[in-house]
Every structure is written in structure tokens, then in C-alpha cells.
Amino acid sequence: MEQKKCKNKKCQRPLPEGYKYKYCESCRNMRTEHIKDFGKKALSVGALAVITVVTKGKINPKKK
Fold first, then answer.
1. Rounded to whole angstroms, how far apart are CA atoms 8 and 14?
2. Is 6 exposed, middle or buried (0-12, 13-18, 19+ CB in 10 A)?
3. pTM for this predicted structure
4. How far apart are the first and last CA of the chain?
5. How far apart are CA 58 and CA 64, in angstroms?
6. What is the pLDDT of residues 3-27, one digit of tens each?
């Protein structure tokens, strides 16, 4: 039987026999962190848009 490898092109670590995931533990953790970071950025942009709409654009951070 052929040894399964991690699907990440940069990793390619051999996976243990009977491992149920396509990616190794390290790659899965990195992927989770990237998704969390993207969610945080999207939330901050969305919050900024809501604040701008609610205040009708009266708050201008560049104005001194």
C-alpha cells in the first residue's frame, strides 16, 4: 500500500497509517490560524463600515 502524504505542497510529510485527515497536524493548525486571522480582519472592516453608516460619515480620523 502506498504511503499517504500531507496535501500541502510545501509540506509533503508522510501521514500515519489510518490517519483520517488530508493534512498533517501542523498544516491543519496553520490553516485554522489563517482562517481566524481573516475573520478578525473582516469583522474589523465590517465594524468600521457600520460605524461610518451610523454616524453618517461625521467622524473623520484624518481631520485634526
1. 11
2. buried
3. 0.67
4. 69
5. 13
6. 899 999 999 999 999 999 999 999 9
